[in-house]
Amino acid sequence: MPKIILEHVTKRFDKFVAVDDLNMVIEDREFITLLGPSGCGKTTTLRQIAGLETPTEGRITIGDTVVFDSEKNINISPAKRDIGFLFQNYALWPHMTVYQNISFGLENLKWPKDRIRQRVSEMLAMLKIEQFEKRYPSELSGGQQQRVAIARTLAPEPKVLFMDEPLSNLDAKLRLEMRTELKRLHAETDSTFVYVTHDQLEAMTLATRICLMKDGVLQQYDPPLEVYNNPANLFVADFVGNPTMNFLPGTARVLDETHAEVTVLGRSFLFESDAPLGKPEGEDVVLGVRPEFIRLGSGGMEGKVYAALPAGMETTVQMTMGDQLVTSVEFGSVDYKANSPMRFEFHGQGLILFDKKSGKKLGRGSATQR
Ligand SMILES: Nc1ncnc2c1ncn2[C@@H]1O[C@H](COP(=O)(O)OP(=O)(O)O)[C@@H](O)[C@H]1O
Ligand SMILES: [Mg+2]
């Protein structure tokens, strides 16, 4: 089973750099999501690995085979890369039944008849669409059609499965259901999944590792919780998590290797980092505080409730302190009155100190009010 290696992969469209010197290793059987805002180069990256787009520079290896090398003029065709595709606009063949849609590719590959029958049955069972075997696509719901498309893609046992926003045409409930199915499917097959999405929640919940890109440049390549808890920079911190992290602008004075005095919201805090602090470019910093690290009802800061949004399981509470909006999340349903005063404090070890100028993370730790 293959490991995929990208080395210095760059794609330029004329002068525009769509993918900029991308280096990454996708281990065998991983579920990678390429994540980032629209236009950041996700699809281009996927298409380059698949062989549908020719990189301007770099090298791509799948398993033991170099499939692309700009210096050695190697460029193996997509058909010979042993991969499967599932795109946003999957099209089933309308004049074929579900069974035929799945078996057709295997017939083209000249699989023996009984093996085809067995494999299609397996796929029908895995995707729970056995009862639709004889139906035509027009007789299926969107979600059922999607399952057929997945079955068709997986049937030839591709070593690598590429998916480009395959769930974006489905409604919210179905999307959630298909996410679960994809995750199970990944556990049940021996394939490596490479999955494009702009939906951070989809990436968080599905991936073994997230490759987060911005303007063609890799920002962070780590497991989802690492990206969430230990974002490399302001962009990553802002992109992942909902409601988003609070970014509190202020200043910092480094005291020693792991301590800094940080002033935000007009208050002074001792920031204690769990690792040596990075070197700030100036004294301007941003303290990043996830909403779950703001405790309401006690502490040395006081704001005014701007809005409370109870959603059943949790409540998002927005407060203003001066002209800063601060968001907190509480478990359970609580309804605070707008404009009522609210004490709050930071808690936990998960606060992130960023350098304002470069946006880079300086440290992660706790902030205690002085
Ligand atoms: N064939 C092309 N010609 C010119 N520019 C392109 C082409 N394909 C993609 N781009 C540009 O490259 C950038 C990245 O595109 P893409 O990889 O599709 O982004 P994403 O999938 O992250 O939304 C975009 O700015 C897009 O306009
Ligand atoms: Mg795209």
The SS-based structural class is alpha+beta
What overall form do the CA principal axes indicate? Answer: globular
Mean pLDDT, all residues: 93
CATH topology type of the largest domain: Rossmann fold
| Largest pleated sheet | 6 strands, mixed
Count of helix runs = 8
Q: What's the CATH architecture name of the largest domain?
A: 3-Layer(aba) Sandwich
Can you give a write-up of this model?
With 370 residues, the chain is an alpha+beta fold. The chain has 2 domains: 4-237, P-loop containing nucleotide triphosphate hydrolases (Rossmann fold); 246-369, Beta Barrel (OB fold (Dihydrolipoamide Acetyltransferase, E2P)), CATH 2.40.50. Helices cover 22% and strands 40% of the residues. It has 8 helices and 21 strands. The chain has helices spanning 42-50, 98-108, 113-126, 142-154, 172-188, 200-206, 224-229, 234-239; strands at 4-13, 16-26, 31-35, 57-62, 65-69, 74-75, 83-87, 160-164, 192-197, 209-214, 217-222, 246-254, 259-264, 267-273, 284-289, 294-310, 314-321, 324-331, 341-346, 351-355, 361-369. The strands form 4 sheets. A 6-stranded mixed beta sheet has the order 7-8-9-3-10-11, with helices on both faces. A 6-stranded antiparallel beta barrel has the order 12-13-14-21-20-15. Strands 2-1-4-5-6 form a 5-stranded antiparallel beta sheet, with helices on one face. It is globular. 38% of the residues are buried. The model has no long low-confidence stretch (mean pLDDT 93). Residues 13, 16, 18, 36, 38-44 line the site of adenosine-5'-diphosphate.
